[in-house]
Design a protein that fits this description.
By secondary structure, the protein is mostly beta strands. The protein has helices at 53-60, 115-122, 204-210, 271-276, 308-311, 338-347; strands at 6-9, 40-43, 48-52, 63-67, 72-77, 80-85, 90-93, 96-99, 105-107, 110-114, 125-129, 134-139, 142-150, 159-168, 171-181, 191-193, 213-217, 237-239, 242-245, 254-257, 263-266, 282-285, 289-292, 295-296, 315-322, 327-336, 352-356, 364-366, 369-372, 382-384. It contains six helices and 30 strands.
């Protein structure tokens, strides 16, 4: 029997995020299909990168013929012909036999080939982006950002939850940490809202339940102290590729992901460019940024923050991070300042990280209950939805 888990980014009078845990999937009733991702593998031991062969064929216009009985792969573009053999470090290029140092292989029904060898002969452009651990693949006007993960890193537990203690300076902080493998075929993200609309108010757990989510965390800031029924959020909110709320007046950091679940952090003033480049399938603007490329990068005032609770104060915090291996980190912790939170996220393994709304709004929901309980009753904002299918025990 197939079961699914959804992950939400919820807004507790803020916008938020949701995720899934390593608890058996049979505990949830939501059902969904697997979500195929397109990504490449890195093999650190061999120093090579592998990509799905269809990416190269799509981008180069080459024809690919795979003969299952022999394991041979013919790649033809014009007068250029490359023949590879599954598991063999030998190739034929234009009729000449050559030795190669990386063999093609198959994983989960997808054929992967050495990127450099094939791309060079097919005229495909390559550019590595270390900030997103992705390869920009181009051919004329065609382009895509291909996530690259370590070979063998996807497991049968795409979501993990643990309590961790971090030392920052002379202080200790115990945090709830949920880690999600974004490239796992049974994990998908989406954005959901309180009562399915922007500006509404609803408890985080209710948002999660309403959307069939397995996990959720609060997200962005909003007008919590307004007496109006509409609680206006601060910043951009995007769901399923549609901008649900736009506020381009600040440079506050945006967490965004594309339709392949390649996640990134975007400065607020660069949202339009990123959206036009199809890098934003879902997004929540919050901030300030905590980590950039593995380094502490806190500058709350430059992002437009003026509240002492952000600039100098300590309290309950929520944060979202992205690892170099395309894992999402959702974390809640009590009593930290923003600079301390940055150090905590770095120790947790994040390469990029952003603060979410905190204080009484800080909450983390997993498998039908809070693991970090909100102190506010009411939630307005956004949910990221994570779906996981099949029992992965």
């Amino acid at each position: 029997m197939q079961k699914a888990i959804k992950m939400l980014l919820a807004v507790a009078l803020t916008a938020g995020v949701t995720t899934v845990g390593s608890v058996p999937i049979a505990t949830t009733t939501a059902v969904a299909a697997t979500t195929a991702k397109t990504f490449g593998y890195s093999d650190p031991a061999a120093g090579r990168t592998y990509v799905p062969i269809r990416i190269l064929s799509d981008f180069s216009g080459a024809k690919v013929n795979w003969v299952a009985s022999s394991g041979k792969i013919d790649i033809v573009k014009g007068k250029k012909k490359i023949t590879l053999t599954m598991g063999k470090k030998q190739a034929t290029i234009d009729g000449k036999s050559v030795q190669i140092d990386a063999a093609p292989f198959s994983d989960a029904g997808v054929t992967y080939v050495p990127l450099g060898l094939v791309a060079t002969h097919l005229g495909v452009g390559l550019k590595w982006d270390s900030s997103t651990s992705s390869m920009r693949v181009t051919n004329g006007e065609k382009k895509m950002d291909l996530p690259i993960i370590a070979r063998g890193s996807l497991t049968n537990t795409p979501v993990r939850h643990q309590r961790q203690t971090f030392r920052v300076g002379g202080s200790s902080f115990t945090a709830n940490v949920v880690t999600v493998q974004l490239m796992h075929p049974q994990v998908s993200l989406d954005a959901a809202f309180a009562n399915h609309k922007v500006g509404a108010v609803q408890d985080l757990s209710a948002i999660a339940a309403q959307n069939g989510a397995y996990a959720a965390i609060n997200g962005t800031f909003f007008d919590a102290y307004s007496s109006a029924a509409y609680k206006a959020p601060y910043g951009y909110l995007v769901s399923k590729g549609d901008v649900q709320f736009a506020n381009g007046g600040t440079n506050r950091t945006i967490f965004a992901y594309d339709d392949n679940q390649l996640a990134r952090l975007i400065p607020g003033f660069e949202f339009g460019t990123a959206f036009d480049a199809r890098q934003v399938e879902g997004a929540v603007q919050a901030g300030p940024m905590l980590l950039k490329n593995g380094n502490v990068a806190v500058n709350a005032a430059a992002e437009g923050f003026q509240d002492p609770k952000i600039l100098t104060g300590g309290g309950a915090r929520s944060a979202i991070g992205i690892t170099q291996n395309h894992e999402l980190i959702l974390l809640t912790v009590g009593g930290s300042t923003i600079p301390q939170l940055a150090q905590i996220m770095k120790q947790a393994g994040a390469y990029q990280a952003m603060n979410l709304d905190g204080g009484a709004s800080s909450g983390l929901y997993l498998n039908g209950k809070y693991i970090t309980t909100q102190c506010v009753v009411g939630e307005s904002g956004v949910d990221l939805i994570l779906e996981r299918t099949r029992d992965l025990r």
